[in-house]
């Protein structure tokens, strides 16, 4: 009886509506230009939660919530994800690992919220795999990526293994293997180099600040 109850609990927590294959290929595609049909690529966040060294106990897929409804306000997928995880009953004495696959890297505000969430829940370890970088040329969005990196919330650019994992876990794949699009790995490598350049600027800034602090110390001694 206890075993049956446990199985039912796990099935209830891990059951989700899988992404249609066409949606996955379009929304998670990392091509520089949107392939036909030219629909806007939105934010999708797929997550799974598991106790350390244990089975997956919760998973799901979320999108940005557009303004409307009773509240009249929109909510980013990352904020909806935080609300969802907070609503789950977890043993605070146990370490949980959460893996997220996102179509776009978080904006600065969402990065701040993710950092605050992990800070308030030290038993949670969060990893983000991103298909693309969101407004990576704008300073504020770069600061968000550096904040996540500094807070030990790794943002990793999805490459073939991550796309395959996401396909297997979250897509209505009809038992068919993931078929990579042309130049997938090349696009991933280019995006990853861009991310590393952004993160390296954080290290340069830390070195400059340390040098200035040393100069101030020398002046005052």
Automatic annotation (TrEMBL):
Enzyme's top EC category: hydrolase
Signal peptide annotation: 1-16
Cofactors, names only: Zn(2+)
Alphabetized PROSITE patterns for the sequence: CYT_DCMP_DEAMINASES_1, CYT_DCMP_DEAMINASES_2
Presence of keyword Metal-binding: yes
Keyword entries, A-Z: Cytoplasm, Hydrolase, Metal-binding, Signal, Zinc
Gene Ontology cellular-component annotations: nucleus; P-body
SUPFAM superfamilies registered for this protein in UniProt: Cytidine deaminase-like
Cited InterPro entries: APOBEC/CMP_deaminase_Zn-bd, APOBEC_Cyt_Deaminase, CMP_dCMP_dom, Cytidine_deaminase-like
Protein family according to the UniProt entry: Belongs to the cytidine and deoxycytidylate deaminase family.
PANTHER family, sorted: DNA DC-DU-EDITING ENZYME APOBEC-3H (PTHR13857:SF43), MRNA EDITING ENZYME (PTHR13857)
Protein's name according to its UniProt entry: single-stranded DNA cytosine deaminase
């Amino acid at each position: 009886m206890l075993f049956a109850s446990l199985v039912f609990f796990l099935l209830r927590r891990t059951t989700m509506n899988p992404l249609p294959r066409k949606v996955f290929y379009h929304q998670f595609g990392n091509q520089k230009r949107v392939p036909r049909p030219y629909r806007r690529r939105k934010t999708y966040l797929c997550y799974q939660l598991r106790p350390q060294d244990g089975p997956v106990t919760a998973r799901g897929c979320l999108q940005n919530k557009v303004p409307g409804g009773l509240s009249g306000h929109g909510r980013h997928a990352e904020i909806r994800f935080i609300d969802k995880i907070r609503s789950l009953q977890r043993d605070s004495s146990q370490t949980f690992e959460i893996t997220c696959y996102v179509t776009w890297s978080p904006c600065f505000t969402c990065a701040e919220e993710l950092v605050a969430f992990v800070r308030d829940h030290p038993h949670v370890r969060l990893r983000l795999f991103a298909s693309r970088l969101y407004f990576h040329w704008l300073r504020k969005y770069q600061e968000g990526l550096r904040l996540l990196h500094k807070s030990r919330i790794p943002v990793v650019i999805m490459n073939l293994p991550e796309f395959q994992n996401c396909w297997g876990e979250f897509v209505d794949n009809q038992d068919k293997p993931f078929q990579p699009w042309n130049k997938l790995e090349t696009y991933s490598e280019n995006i990853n180099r861009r991310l590393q350049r952004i993160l390296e600027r954080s290290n340069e800034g830390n070195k400059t600040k340390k040098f200035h602090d040393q100069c101030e110390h020398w002046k005052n001694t």
